[in-house]
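Lecture notes, continued. The same structure-token format from the folding unit now serves as the input rather than the output. Read the line below as a description of shape only.
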């Protein structure tokens, strides 16, 4: 997308470059920066990241044994190295900076902070020890600072994962994969040690709807059938489809369903013996969790589907059963958190927006404020989905150019503010020093990298490069 050629001294010319702050350096943020750098105008893009390390979900969400998915960071590095782009790590909206301050410094702000919170099941017993958000487990094995000190009792023999998405599959696979296959990845050493001592021998992956409605993708599902020492178990009766589900197989929103069903049929036909079992349950929902202090068992209620093809919901049947388990991960989707100073839709857990424009009220856009990625559309899609999303948002921003307030000082003012606070900014070169140190730590352990899991340790490693960015 290329903006119209502006007149001399207009916004977007060398005399008055378009100054944009992108808040968040995950896929949505990087792709927004990329679209801005490609728009044909004179631009300055500042990527503002709350942690000293970039890449958001690619660093903290992608499973360590799916290293190929992380290769997108090479694209992000190219964006960050563009001379028109600056990385401001260890700087957070709502911590060092307010929304008002950012709005005063930049012509536009693109919020790309992702969806960091988890959805709850909303049932009795969710507070029990042994019940966790899948996102915390993912953050723990991926070295997210907030999750590093968490404990997961892997001495339990039965674990339950609730949800039928790719995060649920990631959790099952990391619990079941031989540690030898994880040892050389960038999984955190604390997770590797805990997984090596794991006594989990039975995993139940529980979904409230059927195989056609499951959200996971075939590649990820197929991997569950390849885990050495584990046998996937599926009740063939749960693979019998109702008429509406059969119709759904031909609908656009169900592209993976036929392949998923095929894989599940192959699991159901699997007759080999294995010491460990992975049960895939359909049409089951937990309705209560029991235990005194710690999870001991859950009550499941059988579900049936109701509604037209394409919009079938799970409906309880009243038929209940009990399952013993000491560990449960709810993997029922992430949720965005409110951004201080911006209107937030608590129903969807996203910023209210129209085509990426943050909306103060229906029909009223907040001038200069935009959103992209999971905080805009919710936690859906793959990494590449954020590219299209960011292109849409940047197109809206460029359309609004004539209405944006000028002049704005941009990064000069940001640096002056942070310097006056004595705040430690992490530049992209600083990040590269952190990355080098992580790789060196990893090599000593025969791993790709050993991530720092504490912000102070990241800052020490960053100090191998000059700390503050050069003046603008
Ligand atoms: P997701 O794909 O939206 O799946 C959420 C699952 O939770 C659905 O099966 C949903 O069932 C279920 N659920 C929601 N509320 C529930 C409740 N109250 N009780 C029982 N089940 C409930 O979310 P996700 O797995 O967190 O993944 C997020 C995004 O990241 C997805 O786009 C995913 O594809 C992506 N991702 C991709 C990869 C990869 O490419 N390898 C890896 C990880 C994540 P209903 O459908 O019935 O609502």
């Amino acid at each position: 997308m290329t903006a119209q050629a502006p007149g001399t001294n207009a916004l977007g010319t060398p005399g008055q470059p378009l100054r944009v702050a992108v808040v968040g350096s995950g896929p949505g943020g990087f792709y927004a920066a990329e679209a801005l750098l490609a728009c044909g105008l004179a631009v300055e893009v500042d990527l503002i990241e709350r942690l000293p390390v970039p890449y958001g979900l690619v660093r903290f969400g992608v499973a360590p044994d799916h290293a190929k998915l992380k290769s997108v960071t090479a694209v992000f590095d190219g964006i960050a190295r563009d001379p028109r782009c600056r990385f401001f790590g260890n700087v957070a909206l709502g911590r060092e900076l307010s929304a008002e301050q950012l709005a005063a410094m930049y012509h536009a702000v693109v919020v790309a902070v992702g969806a960091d919170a988890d959805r709850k099941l909303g049932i009795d017993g969710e507070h029990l020890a042994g019940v966790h958000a899948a996102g915390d487990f993912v953050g723990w094995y991926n070295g997210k600072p907030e999750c590093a000190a968490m404990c997961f009792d892997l001495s339990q023999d039965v674990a339950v994962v609730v949800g039928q998405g790719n995060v649920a599959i990631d959790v099952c696979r990391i619990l079941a994969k031989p540690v030898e296959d994880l040892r050389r990845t960038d999984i955190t050493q604390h997770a590797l040690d805990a997984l090596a001592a794991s006594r989990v021998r039975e995993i139940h992956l529980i979904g409230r709807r059927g195989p056609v409605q499951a959200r996971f993708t075939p590649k990820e599902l197929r991997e569950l059938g390849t885990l050495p020492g584990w046998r996937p178990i599926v009740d063939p009766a749960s693979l019998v489809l109702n008429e509406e589900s059969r119709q759904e197989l031909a609908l656009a929103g169900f592209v993976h369903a036929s392949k998923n069903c095929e894989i599940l049929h192959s699991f159901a036909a699997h007759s080999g013996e294995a010491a460990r079992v992975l049960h895939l349950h359909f049409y089951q929902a937990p309705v209560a969790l029991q235990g005194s202090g710690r999870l001991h068992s859950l009550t499941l209620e059988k579900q049936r589907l109701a509604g037209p093809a394409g919009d079938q919901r799970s409906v309880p049947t009243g038929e209940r059963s009990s399952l013993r388990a000491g560990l449960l991960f709810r993997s029922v989707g992430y949720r965005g958190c409110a951004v201080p100073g911006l209107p937030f839709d608590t129903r969807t857990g996203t910023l209210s927006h129209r085509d990426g424009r943050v909306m103060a009220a229906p029909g009223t856009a907040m001038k200069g404020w935009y959103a992209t990625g999971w905080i805009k559309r919710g936690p859906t899609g793959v990494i590449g989905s954020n590219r299209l999303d960011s292109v849409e948002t940047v197109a809206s921003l460029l359309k609004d150019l004539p209405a944006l307030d000028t002049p704005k000082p941009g990064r000069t003012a940001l640096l002056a503010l942070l310097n006056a606070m004595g705040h430690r900014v992490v530049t992209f070169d600083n990040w590269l020093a952190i990355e080098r140190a992580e790789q060196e730590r990893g090599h000593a352990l025969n791993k790709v990298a050993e991530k720092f899991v504490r912000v102070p340790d990241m800052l020490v490693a960053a100090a191998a490069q000059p700390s503050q960015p050069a003046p603008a």
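Point for the exam: The pocket of NAP is lined by residues 66, 121, 162-168, 170, 207-209, 213, 215, 220, 285, 314, 331-334, 379-382 (CB under 6 Å).
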